[in-house]
Design goal:
Largest sheet: none
Structural class: mainly alpha
Order of helices and strands: HHHHHH
Keywords: Actin-binding, Coiled coil, Muscle protein
GO molecular function: actin binding
Helix content: over 70%
Protein name: Troponin I4b, tandem duplicate 1
Organism: Scleropages formosus
Number of strands: 0
InterPro entries: Troponin (IPR001978), Troponin_I (IPR050875), Troponin_sf (IPR038077)
Length: 181
């Protein structure tokens, strides 16, 4: 017991000190998360303000509004085409990555071989080993108990298409009724 107490380590910090440090770390992390979220929001607002200027619709005639709508539709089409192109590239890259990962997995599987030990045996020893395994299998089967099962009465399964005509009508129903009894 004295050796056990000798090897037992005392913590550098007390439990209350560790709890205080842990709470401070958690508060700092929460503050950092809030600051990061605010930073993301401001960056998003700035990029939206740069890319999408505010619309000024007051004082425009009907013709100018129609021209503005056409321009906006053209811009939307260009953005949709770019988005579609990027999505197809991403999907293609993901499929390629999956394919390459599968190939790597296959190659690793083929290259991994177990460490085999070299065993020196003569031909007689090998034949003796094969004969021993056959004998042990036969002995094992001989020692098993045999259990007799009652054979269930099974009707012979035939092709149903062959005797459709024979089983049709009232005669066929009579045969089925007689067979059930």
């Amino acid at each position: 017991q004295q050796l056990f107490l000798f090897f037992q380590r005392k913590p550098k910090y007390s439990a209350t000190r560790r709890l205080l440090l842990k709470t401070k770390l958690l508060k700092k992390a929460a503050d950092m998360l809030v600051a990061e979220e605010e930073k993301r929001k401001t960056e998003r607002e700035n990029t939206l303000n740069e890319r999408v200027p505010p619309l000024r619709l007051s004082g425009l005639s009907v013709q100018e509004l129609q021209n503005l709508c056409r321009e906006l539709h053209q811009k939307i089409d260009v953005v949709d085409e770019a988005r579609y192109d990027i999505e197809t590239k991403v999907a293609k890259n993901e499929k390629e990555i999956e394919y390459l990962n599968h190939k790597i997995f296959e190659l690793k599987g083929k290259m991994k071989r177990p460490n085999l030990k070299r065993v020196k045996k003569s031909a007689d020893d090998m034949l003796g080993a094969i004969a021993d395994t056959k004998l042990t299998k036969a002995d094992f089967k001989a020692n098993l108990k045999t259990v007799k099962k009652e054979e269930e009465k099974r009707e012979e399964v035939t092709d149903w298409r062959k005797n459709v005509e024979a089983m049709s009508g009232m005669e066929g129903r009579k045969k089925l009724f007689d067979a059930a009894q």
